[in-house]
Amino acid sequence: MLPRLTQARAPLTHEIEAVDEHGQPQRVAMPAERDLTVYVDRRELVTLMTLGAQPEWLVLGYLRNQRLVRSVDEIESVTVDWEVSSAAVKTRSGIDCIEERTARRVVTTGCGQGSVFGALMDEVGSLQLPDAVLPQASLYGIVDAIRHQESTYKSAGSVHACALFRGAQLLLFVEDVGRHNAIDTIAGWMWMQGLAAADAAPDAPYVFYTTGRLTSEMVIKSAQMGVAIVVSRSGMTQMGQSIAAQLGLCAIGRALNKRFLCYSGRERVRWQPGLAG
């Protein structure tokens, strides 16, 4: 049974008056960053800084990617109230040993300083990825789809985006102040849709795209959701590359127009070098 969710979408931008290089006032839009404190069964868990585009999916994905909840069926409801900047999660049977499981944190390189609970880093070796091969033509289709996507970034800047593709088909595009929030939101949406990466056809796999760099956190979150191919407009960290290679995950960075670098998992690309021009 799926949880009950509120629909507490918040305005994504806020207009202010700034002064340009000529000393002239200009009305400009900026991302409307806000805090959201998550409570699980009335116990304060974490405060997330977010745009608030889809806060319920964000909370679900956060719980999923932190491995605090193994199945969406364990959650009865997620209630977001922006008047008090809180998200109240009610589980059906509680979370076993939540104090011990959330005691150790690792500060990550996420924008605004993300964090993961230490046990998440300990479970990397148990992750299994499905068969997946991405044609080079589909990679170019992904990059082109992002280029044409309407976004808060184009109007206000200062945000990261993540997207979920099936092959070159865009399924969901999410922006937030940090890329870790955006990928968590996608994880929550996948749960609510009942999507499992292993169910995709090997030659039209689920692919994550992010405008931010591929860090260890992004690689681990992608892998534990079963997504075997990640693409970034930016680069990759050494730890991110090491974990991706360990898992057999295909990590592609610097993807812009026809250029890209495959940092790991090159066997998951169906190479078509003639398309590179």
UniProtKB/TrEMBL annotation:
The keyword Disulfide bond does not apply. It comes from the Bacteria. The keyword Transferase applies. Keywords: Transferase. Gene3D superfamilies: 3.10.20.10, Cytidine Deaminase, domain 2. GO terms for molecular function: sulfurtransferase activity. This is Sulfurtransferase FdhD. The lineage of its organism: Bacteria, Pseudomonadati, Pseudomonadota, Betaproteobacteria, Burkholderiales.
